[in-house]
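Progress report, Aim 2. The chain analyzed during this reporting quarter is listed below.
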Amino acid sequence: MRRLLVLSLVGLMLAGCKPSAEEGHEPAPIRPVLVMVAKRIETDLFGPFAGTVEPRYQSQLGFQIGGRVAARDVTVGDTVKKGQRLATLDPTVTRFALTRAEADVADAKAQAENAAATEARSRKLMEGGNVTQAQLDSSVASRDTTQARLAQAMSSLQRARDQMGYTELHADFDGVVTQRLAEVGQVLSAGQAVVTVARPEVREAVVDIPEDLVGTMPRDGRFAISLQSAPEITTVGTVREVAPFADQSTRTRRIKLALIDPPSAFRLGATITVGLTRKVDPYVLLPATALLEADGKTSVWIAPPVDKDGMTRVERRDVTVAKKGAERVSLRDGVKDGERVVVAGIHSLKDGQTVRIEEVTP
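Predicted structure tokens for the chain:
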């Protein structure tokens, strides 16, 4: 009996030393995690970039002769018609030159008439044998010389008249003054610009794009262009010209877009926004914190729909990375549109672990 009692006590002691099954398999704690709803992206926006509306054709107009500006009839923003006077030079010097040229013509004409009369008399006297052949030849030569001097004087007179006309600057076409480059009283050299006149009927969008993005710009794309002051007013543009070199200070290249039937609101100088929506290979964009790299695999945690208590069990899924950045990753495969992906707390999870989720906006 005593032996049986001792065995019973030993059995009770051993039973007290063994851990229970429940103590050895405690469930993992319920962890709160942040999730984001995956959205499949099939288009990409190139831009947007800021630009301006500028004329395709414009000319810097200046006087063909030098002189002092006596009047400037237009300023920036004025609309001008073909043949309209834009500015004038002081005509004093050119008027003196014209007067001198007219006097030279009168003198040359008188000498030519006198030489012609002398040659006619010498020819008649030659017929009567009263002058020698040498005298007649001299009269003919004098007549030819004075005729040549008259032609030269007439040419100088025409040039002086043209110079007089050059003292006025006129518009070569209908347009708008976009620049004023000279003031009254300023002394100009021949060809120096006075104003810039643009043709408003042909407008284009001009935008500066970073040089590293120009290579990915589709040359045949149709860009959506809108006014910054009124974004609802839009038009379409196509690439017409790409600057061959980048600006040394901004490292951007100037792109000129031809506007297709732009509204009248697209006036010269208007500020615009330029962008292009293009199709790309579908991908899912997630924060870089959602990516788990372990055991030679790249994966994410998927959170299925929650139960009535707001909890669910996460599952690990392998994914294919299309592009990886410091803050964002693009996934090509592995995540479906609308699925919720854990974006915080991924390193403390286990497959099938119960979690309480809280959604965050992209």
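DSSP finds five helices and 23 strands in the chain. The radius of gyration is 46 Å. These observations will guide the mutagenesis work planned for the next reporting period.
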